[in-house]
Prior knowledge:
The complex is a heterodimer. Chain A is mainly α. Chain A is built from 5 helices and 2 strands; from the N terminus they run ααααββα.
Amino acid sequence: MKPNDVILRSVTRVAAVIILTFSIYLFMNGHHHPGGGFIGGLSTASAIVLLYLSFGIEKVRENIRTDFKKLAAIGVLIAIGTGTASVLFGKPFLTQTFGHVDLPIFGDTELASALIFDTGVALAVIGTAVNIILSISEDR
Amino acid sequence: MNNLLITPVVIPLLTGMVLIIFQRNIQLQRVLSLIALIVTSVISVLLMNQIKNDGIQTLQLGGWEAPFGISFVGDMFSALLLLATSIVSIGCLIYAFSSIGRKQEKLYFYPLFLFLITGVNGSFLTGDLFNLYVFFEVFLVASYVLITMGGDKRQLQESLKYIFTNIISSAFFLIGVAYLYSMTGTLNLAHLSIRISEVGQDGLITTVAFLFLIVFALKAGLLLFFWLPGSYSVPPTAIAGIFAALLTKVGIYAMIRMFTLIFYHEPQITHLFIGILAAVTMVLGGIGAIGYWDLRKILTYNVVISVGFIMAGLVSMTPAGMTGSIYYLIHDMLIKALVFLIGGTVIHIAGTSDLKQISGLIRHHPRLGWMFFIAALSMVGIPPLSGFLGKVFITKGTFESGYFWLGGIGLLASLFILYSMIKIFMNAFWGETILSEEEEKGTTKGLLLPIALLTVGSLTLGFGAEGIAGHVAQAAEELLNPSLYISAVFD
């Protein structure tokens, strides 16, 4: 089945970039404002699903060679790993810490260990969400 | 602060995630999951010793103080159940090695098994009501997948029933949590206990207590066990064993926790009602157990009887009754896994679960037969086997608190258990040997080791009851004095 979806494809080419940029914004915004790993991951997943819808599963799979099941597992590993790291410092599980660092371009930046945790969450969400859609689409 | 409390949750979870990455390497999966469970059981022993020496252990996750953060609380009751969980899961895991089949092993059996353990351990340790809900969901989701493994028609049919029942009860759970939060403004179990004892348990809160009773009764199979016999008899043996040993027990644990820590002010309403449910459950379970001639059905109805029996100890709210409930709960976890594994092995050998078509297995499988005999006597409560102490204490507790009818029905239920188990023994193991060794449908190769392991565990619990008597007494005391739990969380 090859439907003629020129409009969808043309829009997707632009929209995917916008969605991905916005999801990075959401992700980075999350520490003090609405946003964070979960919502950032979910919007990234939506961009990927949009690509699947408009270009077909095979074509996207050729370009994004990721096993999303493993991606989700790695995400959880990172998230729990940062939680466990605080145990090594004798603090309660999941304790987070932050510090201010002078980065060349960004200036004075607040770096928090919660960012690594959130990265894990984002990866887990992307992996799970895309995996669900793929499983449904394979079911005939 | 005691970071050891989180490890029974984190270790199986992390291992499960690593196993997803190494999905194809079956040997590695087996070894890693076994190591994870052994480490967990060692940790639960360590925890037991710490709690014995220093009282209830707590951990405030992320350093956020209770009641604002999530507390993890390990009292002796949780630690004992953790240890029992680890032993049972090791037994079922080893059984799965040689029975579950390569196809299932590749379909993420081991990670799912570990996630199930994660959820169960988390439910035992969490000190937060919403967190309890989350851990319930964790092990339920894992169990949804495990119950459908293999995917034959009857399995899908029963698992659909199982999933719907659990989704509905989870929805009720959430509604109950919301009601409780709107009335008290907190979800920390210790804080809830303080708030409710301050304002008193009025009619509304008692109603919410009944909502929770329905939820946990559905999960534990207390009266609302219509889903249980079907769904526990369809999955592969190792999975059915772990379900029978753990899943209803988590419901029982939650019920005991809620009705000793939070809703303990109106026992003449709530606890009496639980007592009535328990009595009806025991009678109905007993009728099921003696009525059926299907091996799996008989065993699942025995699960139902024991749920009613354990709740009888809670109803009494006396030290003796509580001690009995704890003893019997631990005993029941071990013994239910054991009889389910033996039952599964019998079906594996004979190729049928109809008792009338099985006979004389003890001739070629003496060890299996005698281990089943020990398990049967232990379930009935013959001293000095492990079921005895629980039965004595529960009966004593119910008589002390004036619930003579409940204690009486409990003893009657023991007769039902005796009849049903001896029926299995006389039909399946005794009698004329109709299958020659060549005609048997399967071998017991690799299956006897986990069964022997659990038998030894059960015997140890029976003969070494003195060794954990102090621990169990402490657990019962902590359950009957909510102030101990509360002060541990808020210090």
